[in-house]
UniProtKB/TrEMBL annotation:
Protein species of origin: Stylophora pistillata
Transmembrane annotation, as ranges: 6-34, 90-107, 119-141, 147-166, 178-205, 217-238
UniProt keyword annotation of Transmembrane present: yes
Superkingdom in the source lineage: Eukaryota
Keyword Hydrolase attributed: no
Name of the protein this chain belongs to: TLC domain-containing protein
Key words, A-Z: Membrane, Transmembrane, Transmembrane helix
Amino acid sequence: MFSSNLFLLLVLSLTVNVSAGIYFFLAPALAFPISKSDSEIAKRLIKFYKEKPRLIRKLFRDQIFAILLFSCGLYCSSSREMYAKPLRNTSSTFLVIFSVYLGNYVFKFCQDFLLRRELPLYKISLLHHFVTATTYGVIIAYRQNSISGVVGLLFEGSVLVFDLNSLLRFLGVSKTGWLVLCTSVLRFFVTILLRALCPIALLAITLSTHTPLSLEYVPLGFFFMNIVFFSMINGWHIKMSFEGFKKRLLARRLSYYYSRPRAASDGMELNNVASLTQILTRTALPIVIPSDANFRLSSPVSNVNMNSDEVSNIAVSRHERTLPQINVIINDTPASNEPINQV
């Protein structure tokens, strides 16, 4: 048991070291031959590498391990051992693969934490990496719940397409081109296949012949926690891939519509439209200013207007109501140049 745990720890450490080597040395080594290419994509890639080298290194390392781990997931899902012992007594081959996966996410957690200023939604990514690393640590320590480990390996296939789509966006590839559209379509269908259909099918096959209650308490808790947590993560991935697919399809349709030649439209005259000189100016309404000071200072809804003792020019009775005296009528243009007389 001790030698087995020591070997798995060695595999984990070796994975972290290999990841660091790929991160620091692979991208600079590939930059020289890529710079000799005359293609537009190669030129944009070199330019982006000079501007943000750490993001290119991250994408290169993540792509390599995504391909490796997804291949391991296909191998494990096609193995008889996975269906014979999906919950208990995990085989040593699976444990080695899970150790590589654990080392990958230990490195990704440290990597994304150091690159947090350049990554959007880095807190969600760190939470995902922490939960994933903890889950595989429990799987390796208890040697149980291998079905969750295999499902996690299959998730890496969608990460591969997701990172490829992000790389095309960073390189400034036309969003209305066929390359981005095909990548968006591939991302949408691969995400549905690997993050919805495959996990549901594998869990249905496992639960039809085995019960998760046979697990110990800690693996049992992680089994149900993984179902809830990764269901939310997978739902978010499916939603984002579907929205990206819709946007690319709409952009493609709009670019096709506006790129079509249009027939020259003849000029049309508008009938029954008067010229600006014929538009009548609205006549200003006269403004009446009462002569009584108390009336002018009172508010529009004040009861002072109805108090005959305080307002001398207002007479209120049951049958007669007179207006106050008027001093000046404004906005009423006189017929001649005579001075305005008070009313």
